[in-house]
Amino acid sequence: xxxxxxxxxxxxxxxxxxxxxxxxxxxxxxxxxxxxxxxxxxxxxxxxxxxxxxxxxxxxxxxxxxxxxxxxxxxxxxxxxxxxxxxxxxxxxxxxxxxxxxxxxxxxxxxxxxxxxxxxxxxxxxxxxxxxxxxxxxxxxxxxxxxxxxxxxxxxxxxxxxxxxxxxxxxxxxxxxxxxxxxxxxxxxxxxxxxxxxxxxxxxxxxxxxxxxxxxxxxxxxxxxxxxxxxxxxxxxxxxxxxxxxxxxxxxxxxxxxxxxxxxxxxxxxxxxxxxxxxxxxxxxxxxxxxxxxxxxxxxxxxxxxxxxxxxxxxxxxxxxxxxxxxxxxxxxxxxxxxxxxxxxxxxxxxxxxxxxxxxxxxxxxxxxxxxxxxxxxxxxxxxxxxxxxxxxxxxxxxxxxxxxxxxxxxxxxxxx
Length: 417
What we know:
By secondary structure, the protein is mainly β.
């Protein structure tokens, strides 16, 4: 009886347990000092120890094993939980589902009077690392890795090798305490020995660099293609860009600003709007003139049209795009009659398409005579309307005088709006 009491008091006062290194063989390091009730260590003696792993609030026993270590000269025992002899048909250590619930360690010690329950202690966080990634994590010296499985943070259904999910914020933070050191992300597609391009985003010396390493260029290793700093955005070669301009006039003429789409459109639209319309010219020849009775003579040698007698006008259609503005009309007349009251009159007549009424935007006439022809110009502008048909009309002020009164041609200058 005395021996059992001594064991309980001894262990409750002097027992030290440390859970530390996690080995690749899935075990937990356990260390304890064994002393008697006088505080003297029990040295160089076999001390059986049994470990039970309990799960959840109900503390259900899910694993049991037995060790028979020998204390050293200082009364210390060191064992690996997970490498003992299974007790009572216990399942293997690697079947423990550490992630499913809380777990506790129950220790029994036998220093001569049988196994004595030394109490129950909840595991700290270290053993639970064994369950990370559903027991898929492996350690190798300084590295911890998982193969062929997706890792989720904030999600239990990751679809990528690493997926971070949060209802409010999801991010990756790379922190390096020294400004001259680097934080970086690399993107590698293909084999390093092949003709492929690798990309890297790196923060070095307070400058964010976008770098390229490619077998398709002569440079060895990563080289900067674009940088972002407090001074702005800069490409590998050329001018640093530090602003986006919405100025539709592009007045600043800067090499450091990129114009927005709206700025470019505004500039182009305004430039087009201020361009002077290009003047166009057509010539209406004598051969296009007709009269109501179709009796029009054409002077072959001089290239002119006339009526032998009478007062009836001859007309030619004026075909110009609708909406255009006629800026000038030039009549090339032949007037070789010396009589002062015998002249030619040239008009532009605009008939409405829906009725026979007309307007006359242009009128010119000859006075005197010339054996080489006479040029009369009207510079009164008028528009070619959608509801009108325009004609050029030539008529005598009194009567035709044969070929002494005739029209060679009419030149019309206009601009399209």
